[in-house]
Amino acid sequence: MLDLAVAYNRYKYLGNEFLTWLWFMMETDKPGLAPAGAEGMDLAVGGRIVLQNSRHNREETVTIKGDGAGLEEGVLALKKGALVTEISLVLRNPESEWRFAVKGESLNISSLKPPEKSPAEAAEDMEQRVLEQLEHVERAAGLLHHLYRQFIQLRLSQDWEKAEIPKIRRWIRQAAS
Amino acid sequence: MGLLSATLSFARYQVEGEISGPFLESVREGLKNNMIREIDNDPAEKSVGWTSLDSPFQPDFDRAELVFGTRLIFCLRIDKKQIPAKVMNKHLNAAVARRLSQSNRSSLTRNEKQELRDEVARRLYLRIPATPGIFEVVWNYEQGVLWFFSTQKAANEELETVFSRSFKLSIIRMFPYTEADLACGLSDEQKDRLYKLTPSDFEGGAHA
Fold first, then answer.
1. Residue B183: domain span
2. What's the pLDDT tens digit per position in B88-128?
3. Which residues of B36-67 are buried (b: 16+ CB within 10 A; e: fewer)?
4. CA–CA min distance A58, chain B (Å)
5. pLDDT the model gives residue B207
6. Total structural domains in chain B?
7. A79 in contact with B, Cβ within 8 Å
């Protein structure tokens, strides 16, 4: 195993590629994501995407905010060589929604907002409240783990270069035109 | 943004190894031995240690509820004192003036100034209350998974140090490389490919 501090910096790009691929999948092949434990739920981009272009000795950051916004400006940044470095996601079923953000370099989950409860539904007992919050954390962490595992299996296969990269390039070209 | 807040932020870890001896007693012992030390009315600038979820300002690990289902929950508390720059400046200026007048000199050496600065800081730290930061730790001991409810780099570094000191176990933060290497069920061949991996080219020279 590599030294962790070295590995953190060396593989930052892998987390950013993951988020870029995740965005591509949500736009083009949602059923292909099929996260276990989230069947019948919809995963979509939330209100914020951050892209960064570190190639060609320049550091350019593009932040896109607002529900449903992002495709044109974001894809244009991708076309110039940027990757998604942070994305907010929303996971929905007919009754509830969970919102959270993921950072590519750390895979940390931030701003996780569980479904709102009415005062009547809210647990009074601390232990019950803790257990409920842990269920929400488990859902977000489990989803992230599942999606990353799916990505890494593909990323380390020959299909990545042969099939996935051409598909992503095509999506970028079409969306940017 | 702690565990009971409206929004949550957390980092994920994998726990390496196992506790030797009876599990819960050993954990309680580790928590007690590394419990937060109060530093109000004390010249220390910072104190880091464990506290309990139910009573973060008067922890009692003999009685604290630690087990929630298959998880242990406790908190890392980081107490810090911060002297406002202007306050520091005022007290340092007065101390320098006093020293010059006592020694009948017109200036102090760099070392003397630093010593004086440390002395003034110690005096002020005695009078400034510490600001506590409380970050929950959720340890799923059956799965060897730990969540830490802060994404601040400094707080995560403190956690790694205190956890290792308390339980003689190391925790490995999950980020793109470690998540792939340790948690995605890769074969040896896939791991080899991971070590040699290079960035993809999504743009395909389209922008050139």
1. 11-81+133-195
2. 999 999 999 999 999 888 889 999 999 999 999 999 999 99
3. beebeeeebbebbbbbbbbebeebebeebebe
4. 15
5. 46
6. 2
7. yes
